[in-house]
Every structure is written in C-alpha cells, then in structure tokens.
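lol ok so funny story. i was supposed to be doing the assay writeup but got distracted and ended up predicting the structure for this chain instead. priorities right. anyway since i did it might as well share w the group, maybe its usefull for someone
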Amino acid sequence: MTRTEYLAELDKYLKRLPEVDYQEAMDYFVEYFEEAGPEHEETVIAELGTPKEAASDVISTVLGKHVTEPNKTPKTNATIIGIIVLSIFAAPIGLPLLLLMILMMLALLAFVLVLIVFAYLLGLAGLFLAAVTLFESLGLLTSSLPAMAMGIGASLLLFGGSLLAWFITTGFARFSARGLLGLWQKMMQKWRTS
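and the output, tada:
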C-alpha cells in the first residue's frame, strides 16, 4: 500500500468527524508521512497499522476530548438575565426596523400591482379605441377611401399594440409574482433559522 492509498482510505474513515477535527487529523498524518520521507513509507504504514485502526484511534481520541471538554454555552441566571436586558434595550431599535421592512415590502407589492393593473387597463383601452377607430373608418367608405385605409391601419396598429401590452404585462406579472414569492420564502426561511 502506498502513502496515497493509505491517506485516501484514512480519509474515507475520518470523513464523519467534525470539520475541524477531521482537518487536524488529516494534517497530522500528511505531515507524519512527509517527515518520514518517501523511502520510509512502508515503515510508517507498519507503525500506524491499517487505516481502519488509525482512524479508530483518532475517533476515540476526538470523542474523549469532546466528552471531557466543559460545555461552552453558559446557562447561568446572570447570562439569561443579561440576554433579557439586551433584548429589552434592542426592542426600540429592532421593532421600528422590522415595521419599516414590512411597510417597504407592502409598498413594493402595491406598486407592482398598480403597475400591472394600469398596464392591463391601458391594453383594454387600446382595444376599445381600436374597435372605435375601425368602426369610424368603415363609416368613411363612401366619402374618402384613403382616410378609411388610414383609419383601418391605425385601428390595426392599436389592436396589435394593445395585445403586445397585454402579453408583456402578463409576463411581467408572472416574473414579479415569482420574484416576490421567492423573496417571501427567503425571508421566512431566515426567520425560522434565527
């Protein structure tokens, strides 16, 4: 077995360790092999034993270290009272900021809704105006053929522009809904994790 194979197999066994302990153990073994040199790889492997045995030793050492370490989260009454006092002092700053954020979200939502409704109404008005222009143009059939053709062209232009406005607005509405929903989900996810 070569050094690379040994370290790869050891890596497989030590992956379950916490990141800091894993990195510390792997650095130790890599350094141990480097100090011995390539000519003494077989001797080092014989000293360490199989990768499974070496990993077992490391895991038991890490477990012993974590069991004997005192808990680093103080749960004394003074700490709890300190957190409560800090929360009370932070409330006059945090609550208005939260309210401002909620109001800004509502204002953004209202703006987007007004923009969408306005665009739909503009498209509807364009369709109505196209129908009126077409009807008036057909009334010019007896008096002026060029004026009638110009009126029909204008009504078709209005009709096409209105449909285009509706399609663009529908796409914008879908995009906005997805964006606002995604933003809401991110905010709720952050709120749940904190």
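Residues 95 and 101 are 10 Å apart (CA to CA). The mean pLDDT is 84.
back to the writeup now i swear
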